[in-house]
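Study this pair:
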Amino acid sequence: MGKNNIKKPAVFLDRDGTLIYDKNYLSSPDRVKLYSYSAESINKLRKAGFKIVVVTNQSGIARGIFSDKDLKKVNKRFVDLLKEHGAKLDGLYCCPHIDKSICGCRKPKTGMALKAAKEHNIDLEKSYTVGDSVRDYLFGYNSGGKGILVLTGHGKREQKKIKDNKIKPLAVCGTLKQAVNVIIKDAG
């Protein structure tokens, strides 16, 4: 088997509330603001051998709050800011649907993970997900890996929902920076 056929683990990162400040239905690139540790965290994960993929639910499109064009501008600004800070992504996937939609991509469903795994040769069982919502860490488990909840963004409110779920996160961390250390230690 050639080197290009070897599957690599990934860390799937939520965008809003995990890598950038959550602005509720972010539709303007001018409002994109990275957390100070986002680029450093991505680079540390990359150095540890992980692919980095952002997966984000963006129901503002289905709700008519912003357009697909607006989302593309926001994502371009987001990616550009990461590059300015020396970090890059392997992929960025968005679900534009609402919970009532019948789609396979809205987290915690696994459509975005399956697509990324196919396009980037990712080993989902050795992968992790980090986000500020219960649906984020469930996405990790539903995809065959593990999930971590961070307390930034909506995380503190979401933490209260953990007790109602049969599946618990691998860890609850204050920030992505702390989650990175948990992932690297757990991956061995």
Notes: The first strand starts at residue 10 and ends at 13. The chain has a mean pLDDT of 95. Strands lie at 10-13, 51-57, 91-95, 128-131, 146-150, 171-173. The chain has one domain: 3-187.
